[in-house]
Amino acid sequence: AIEDYNQSMKSALQKVEDLIKRRNAIKKAITKSNAVTPVTLTRENGTTITMTVAELIEYKNVGLTFVEKLVNTLANQFKTAISRVNNNNSAIEDLADRYVTSLFGIKEGIDGTIVKTSRDAYIAANTTDLLDPNNLKEKIEELRNELDFYNTKVDAALSTSNAVTIIEFEC
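and the corresponding structure tokens:
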């Protein structure tokens, strides 16, 4: 009975060790395969992007998070900048009227063209313009399209690759 028990325990441990060895061999083979197996993604315009499975997995799991953070940061900063420009410019008409009144008062006989010219000059000098050398509206849209593309195409491409890829391993 003790011999049988000892043998049963040794056998159980050997099975677990064999399963671990098999799992490690499979993972090693998958890792090697992923490093060399190409996957091609096709954009709507027909252009293609080819990466290895390993590159695609890394980009999906890590690289896209940086793109998402960039999009969110750019969108928030752009929205804030637009809001500031709009707020500054919405008050400009009243400020221009006050400026002209402080310059000329409410006097009769003042040439209307001088008042209008002064008012227009004030508005031109104090209007806030958005400086956007990176054309952020288009850049944000471009980055969002990239995220959508990868988020919709990657899982399907990886599933297809996994379904047709054959790995060989030794235990």
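(Above: one complete record from the training split.) The radius of gyration is 34 Å.
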